[in-house]
Task: structure prediction
Amino acid sequence: MSTGLPPTRTESNRNRATRNNRRNTSHLKDVPETLAMRESLRDRCREVADRLDHDNPLTKDEMEQVARRMLEEADLPEGLLGWTMVNISSAFWRNQLSAVPPERRLFLLPHCLKHAEGCPADYDQFGMNCKQCGACSIADFRSVAEEMGYRVLVAEGSPVVLKIIVGGYVDAVVGVACLNVLEKAIDKVLLAGIPCMAVPLLSSDCRNTKVDESWVEEMIRTPYVPAATQTRSYVHLMRAAGGLFGRESLHRLAPPMRGIGLPDPESPLIAASRRTSLSVEGGVEGAVERLNGEVAEHVDDAIRPEHLEGVDPIAATEAIAYDFLARGGKHSRPFITLAAYDAMTGGDATCGDGEAMTAAIPDAVRRAALSIETFHKASLVHDDIEDNDAYRYGQPAVHHRFGVASAINVGDYLIGLGYRLLSRGMVGDEVDASTRVDLLDSLAAAHVRLSEGQGAELLWRDAKDRRLQPIDALKIYALKTSPAFEAALYSGVRMAGDAEQLVEPIRKFSRNLGVAFQIINDLNDWIGDDSNKLSAGADVIAGRPTLLWALALQHLDTEDQETLLQIASDDCAIPASERLSIAGRLYRKAGVFDMSLQLVDKHQARAEQVADELESEPLRRLFYFLVDTVLERPEMPTPNTIQLSIAAPVA
Result:
């Protein structure tokens, strides 16, 4: 009899190079027709989940293999795959979620359970403010959950959920959603090791839909049974990375030299600093207020020139820089540094006593992680100027608030601050000289390569001839994106001890991860990215050198190439919307979206091969986690697959 277990991770990797990207999964989201069928299949899912190894969270690909095998053994159709995966996942995390007290659980409800007509609820960026009028099941579920102590959010698929968890407000999630939403949410939440259970809706039409209400109530009433954490989790390290930028932590690790130039503790700038210093919470504060049953508008204004009135001009640069440093972002780079250090010292921060082990990470390591983000924020200030982008983190870019010259200076200040964090010691922050030199050398090398890549992009953007070879686009990607991953990983590993044997593996892994990430970033530009500054097709209008552009020029005929070059010329009089339409049509004609995803697969396979060969199991696990979370492919339906005619550069 089959165990229902997935193959080993190395075997799983080998299958990934040729796997389907699942860009069209609508045929895999059927729901068993009757309650009896659903209950029978759910029981099977629980049996299979009980046999799985619970030490590490399953990836979505591994979970899919388990679900496919289960359906094949039961002679059930492939269309039930999505529903089965959700129920296996819920069963996998059931005991772990029981160990979380209800007041530390989040109950997530979809607004589509409401009655479509006559619903009195108000909506804002955090979802629906249910009036609990009793007209639908939302109020009933919410009442049960709140009686038990849950925090409740009615906002299907809301991106604030992971931020709420990382912000430290809750430790587990139970929810109701359609299979479309659950498919999008399953990767990052589960991979991070966050206990999560869900009941799928019976349909995905988002209008007066239904759910197995007894299942939902049973899920909400999951009893609290205190127990030791079994499955590894990166949540505490994520929280530590975000916590670096809280006001108290930031000022302790990087003491302001000018006191932020604010003698008056009640000045407007202090008030703004208080808001922005909570950037670990970021846009979550309003949602948390909603979770607590309150409705309040959250204002998170960036520092503006009027806030600096009466401030010592010499201190103004520091004030602007600290405000921007504490603002927004995913803090993925400092997380990588902290997680790499933890991996090389045993990986204990991901285990049952993870919170205490994370708290024990030395300040010297935290300062190294902070420096990585400082360099990143400096590059963003400069990039926004070079690309003439108007917004960053939902606020006007620094150069739009203070002018180009001041913004350049703020970016330069952040670079200096980044080096200063590593070049000198503090009390209780003893780091030997050789380690400091190695870290500074690594960061300097990353800084130089980033500048080379950005310089190549700017020269191409300003050139009259916009022709570009795919290999050249990939070289720019390797220079612009990979060094940050490399520096973050190396810093954490080096702070833990000798890293000589890992220099080359880290470089190869980071190069392939960075290139694949940048390709995905360009693909996201075509579907928009609400979490940042992007709008559909902005790279074409801005004249940036992308792989998509290079592949299109390589695979289009002469006439179409000239059309593409014309719409990117500086003197093109065609309206932006029409230019984007033309570019999209030509991109689809050339098959660039499929080819780009094929290249993502190639670079992902190379990154995973590096991970396969690592001797350190905790570091190998971290590399896999980074691949699975960083390389999140967009949902972008494309026509026929076209065979690549270029070779990806050897890493």
